[in-house]
Amino acid sequence: MDVYVMGVAIHPAADAVRNLRLEEMAYATARAALDDAGISRDEIDHVTLAASDEIDARGITSMLLAAPSGAYLKDEMRVTDSGLAGLHLGAMRAGSGDLQLGLVVSWNQSSIGPLEDIARMRGEPFFLRPIGLNFAIADGLYAGAVAARHGIGEAEVAERVRTRLQSAASNPRAVRREVPSAAEIAQSPRIAHPLRSGHRAPVTDGAVAMVLASGDWLRAHPGKRPLARIAGASWTVDRYQLDGDRLADTAVFDAALQDVLGRAGAGGIDDLDLVELEAQSGWVDVALTKAIGAGNRVAVSPSGGAWAQNPYFCTGLINAAEAALQVSGRAGPHQVKGAKRALAHGSSGFAQQTHGFVIMEGVPA
Question: pTM for this structure?
Answer without folding.
Answer: 0.97
